Amino acid sequence: AVPNRIFSGIQPSGGLTLGNYLGALRRFAQKQDEGIESIYCIVDMHAITVWQDPAKLRHATRELTAAYIASGIDPEKSVLFNQSQVSAHAELGWIFNCVARLGWMNRMTQFKDKTAGKNAEASSLGLYAYPALMAADILAYKATHVPVGDDQKQHVELTRDIAAKFNHDFGVNFFPMPEPVIEGAATRVMSLRDGTKKMSKSDPSDASRINLTDDADTIAKKLRKAVTDPEPLPETAEGLASRAEARNLVNIYAALTNSSVEAVLGEFAGQGFGTFKPKLAELAVSVLSPISTEMTRLMQDTGEIDRILSRGAERAEAIARPILDDVYDIIGM
Ligand code: ADP
Ligand code: NA
After folding, report:
1. Domains and CATH numbers, the chain
2. Does ligand 1 lie within 6 Å of residue 200's CB atom?
3. What is the rounded CA–CA span in Å between residue 283 and residue 251?
């Protein structure tokens, strides 16, 4: 069997949220600590599918590197690097543009969501092709497992389709079929203002999200104002079925304590959100404040961050280059 190898990435497109932490960063660190070979990327080439201010992009790349490390990614154990420093991504991305079918890309719901209410024809070709580049990110390392939030499931499925079509078209058994790993209580952290939308750094309302860098007062205030309902917490998870906002806060509590929704309800059933929210705020602050403190410390030495990224890129290149050499050979180049 193919040995397990994990790949995942995050865009350096501005502040990180509690959703990115619970759905991605913290789980990446857990996988690393389980001893699985892990490759984690700052996907800056994905970020430029929408225009980025160059100085802010450079800052966000370093800040995301600091966030990875502050969340427990050890750049000696995991490979931690910046996508644009390893050209295999762009090279394989182009090859996959030629493997993927237009019909497949047309079915990607994230492109539809990101252009909803806007003129889709005015968005970049890169935004449309982004999932083929994501397939290249994963398959340039022959990764077998991709820990992601629920929103990325369709893109990992597309990656499998691309891998299968490549193998079929060239009569090889070359790329593995990578599997999305979507697990835990926080696969989809929702907005604090609207239980039908995911918590996102691109939401125009700052009150809708908790940022990794929010201070204790801001976190407490945002949670106090989070939309809920007047009912007390129920005895069982079914009691949250039609209460999206309440369910979201319970999910966050469960994820932050590494426990289950049932365990949280066991502790809080019968109590109202007036009691629950301050407890949740205290918990969120206790988890996030050491991370933001460490990020601030790391950001004081950007030279060291750049050195970590250069070393990571060398290690990533050493894995990806022989795979790209084989790909070129297979396709006759
Ligand atoms: P964003 O969606 O915030 O722009 P990215 O697209 O860079 O961030 O996603 C980085 C990772 O964070 C992905 O694995 C994604 O699934 C995860 N993620 C993003 N938002 C959430 C959320 N609200 N809940 C759970 N996971 C999330
Ligand atoms: Na996303």
Report:
1. 5-181+302-331 (3.40.50.620), 206-296 (1.10.240.10)
2. yes
3. 13
Asked if 190 and 18 touch (Cβ cutoff 8 Å), the reply is: no
Q: How far away, in angstroms, is 16 Cα from ligand 1 center?
A: 9
Give per-residue pLDDT as tens, 205-253: 999 999 999 999 999 999 999 999 999 999 999 999 999 999 999 999 9
Three-state DSSP class for residue 296:
helix
Look at residues 309, 314, 319, 312 and name the one whose alpha carbon lies nearest to residue 78: 312
One-letter amino acid at 315 equals R
Are the C-beta atoms of 79 and 315 separated by less than 8 Å? Answer: yes
Q: Report yes or no: 63 and 110 within 8 Å, Cβ to Cβ.
A: no
With H, G, I as helix, E, B as strand and everything else as coil, classify residue 245: helix
Residues acting as catalytic residues: 114, 198, 201
Dihedral sign for Cα 273, 220, 30, 109, please: positive
In which order are the strands placed within the sheet that holds 179-181? 79-82, 37-42, 5-10, 145-147, 179-181
Using CA atoms, how far apart are residues 79 and 314, in angstroms rounded to an integer? 9
What per-residue string of b and e applies to 61-72 under the rule 16 or more CB within 10 Å gives b? bbbbbbbbbbbb
Tell me the per-residue pLDDT of 6-49, one tens digit each, with 9 for 90 and over. 999 999 988 899 999 999 999 999 999 999 999 999 999 999 99
* Segment (H or E) for 135: helix 125-139
Q: What is the CA(70)–ligand 1 centre distance, in A?
A: 17
All residue ranges of the chain with pLDDT < 70 are 1-3
ipTM score for this prediction: 0.94
Identify residue 318 by its one-letter amino acid code: A
**DSSP-derived secondary structure for 23-72:** IIIHHHHHHHHTT-EEEEEE-HHHHTTS---HHHHHHHHHHHHHHHHHTT
- Please work out whether the CB of residue 23 comes within 6 Å of at least one atom of ligand 1: yes
